[in-house]
Amino acid sequence: MVDRIIYHPVNRGKGASLRSGFAAATGEIILVQDADLEYSPEDYPVLLEPLLSGKADAVFGSRFMGGQPHRVLFFWHMAGNRFLTLLSNIFTNLNLTDLETGYKAFKAPVIKSIQIEEDRFGVEPEITAKLARMGCRIYEVGISYSGRTYAEGKKINWKDGVRALYAIMKYNLQRHHGIEPR
C-alpha cells in the first residue's frame, strides 16, 4: 500500500529513484513497476507468489517466457536485451530471460542490503549481479507487456544499452565490496 510519494525535483534516473524508494519502503516485500504503463498491475499475484510462498528472495517478471499477451515492438530492443541478458548470465551463472525487465519484486531485507551505485538504467544489471553474488534465490515469471513507441514516450536508446553493458562488466568483475553470500 502506498502511503507517500518520494519525489525528486530533477530527474536523477531510475537507479536514483529506486535507491530513494528502497530506503523509504517499510513493507516486507518491495515491488518495482516502471511507471511507464508498459506493465500491468494485474500481474502482481504471479510476481508475488514465489516470495509469499518462501521460494524466492527476488522475482523478475519476464516479457519473454510466453503465456502472457504482449505488444510486439522494436526488434533491436529485444535483440539488445537478449544480448545483455546472455552476457549477464555468463557472469552470474543465472539463466534469466529478461535482465532489463521493469517489473521486479524483492524481500525487503534483501534489496535494502544492496548498496545501489547506478543512477540510471545500469541499475538493472547492477542489482542482478549483486543478488547473484549474494546467492539469492531468484525466480522469473511470465508477465504481460504493452510496449510503447517513441511517439508514445519510449525513452530508452542505444546509449542505455552501452551503459548496461558497462554495468554488467563493472559489477561482475569488481571485488565484492562488502557483499556477503547468503
Describe the fold and architecture.
There is one protein chain. With 182 residues, this protein is of the alpha+beta class. The chain has helices spanning 14-24, 44-52, 75-92, 108-112, 123-134, 158-173; strands at residues 29-33, 58-62, 103-107, 138-142. It has one domain (14-173): Spore Coat Polysaccharide Biosynthesis Protein SpsA, Chain A (Alpha-Beta Complex), CATH 3.90.550. The chain contains six helices and four strands, in the order αβαβαβααβα. The longest helix is centred in the middle third of the chain and has 18 residues, at 75-92. The mean pLDDT is 88.
Strand and helix order: HEHEHEHHEH
Helical segment count: 6
Unreliable sequence segments = none
Radius of gyration: 15 Å
Query: How many individual β-strands?
Result: 4
Shape: globular
Give the key terms.
alpha+beta; Spore Coat Polysaccharide Biosynthesis Protein SpsA, Chain A; 182 residues; 11% strand; 39% helix
